Amino acid sequence: MPTASEQLDGWLSGDGEKTLGGLIATFEEKSFALLFIILMGVPALPLPTGGATHVFEVITMLLALQLIAGRERIWLPERWQRLTLAGGSREKFITKLMSVVRWLERRSKRRLGFLFGHRLSGVVFGLLVLGGTIAAFLAPPFSGLDTLPSLGVVLLSLALLMEDAALAVAGVLVGAAGVLLEFLLGSAIVDGVGRLL
Q: What are 107-147's pLDDT values in tens digits?
């Protein structure tokens, strides 16, 4: 069975339009996890984005809600489905992302694979993705605090593709650490501002 990176490489180098809609049609049940990786990969980079990634986070929240509701196929507005993923900086980003996925695939193995692919596991996955994405969305601009929650979502999505429970646990821990850090720093800032006033 081909790995996720081999399948994505085949899709990128094959015929057909390289759009969000094309990715959804090709990967069907795996398209949720792949889109979470692509959309949350940018805020997972340790760079302050100044809120520029909020559009990706809103789309991710919409997809997570669909997963929680039990949809097996992604619905996106036609306009979003026509968004091209090939060419320019998007393709470079996907290529870099695939090198990280390949590295993880070499080190990952199927652990507790029976936990994946069920309706309940889809709901839990959707809730965790929604929580991590909301935390990333609420992070103050230019703070870099959206990195860990976003990285948690990316690791969870990779765990789903590779059916690796250990990687899923790592994703939950990274995301939870990001939420805790965001809460602690946010509280410290509020206290500091309160003392000044």
A: 777 777 667 777 778 888 999 999 999 998 888 776 777 88
- Give residue for tokens 């990634």: 53
Q: In terms of Cα–Cα distance, which of 58, 93, 95, 92 is closest to 77?
A: 58
Q: What is the DSSP letter of 70?
A: T
DSSP H/E element including 88: helix 88-107
Please tell me the total count of domains within the chain.
1
Taking the C-alpha atoms of residue 166 and residue 157, their distance in angstroms, rounded to an integer, is 12
Please identify which residue in the block is written with the tokens 């500091």. 192
Residues spanned by the domain of 125: 4-196
Strand partners, 111: 164
Region of 45 please: left (phi>0), alpha (psi -120 to 50) or beta.
Answer: beta
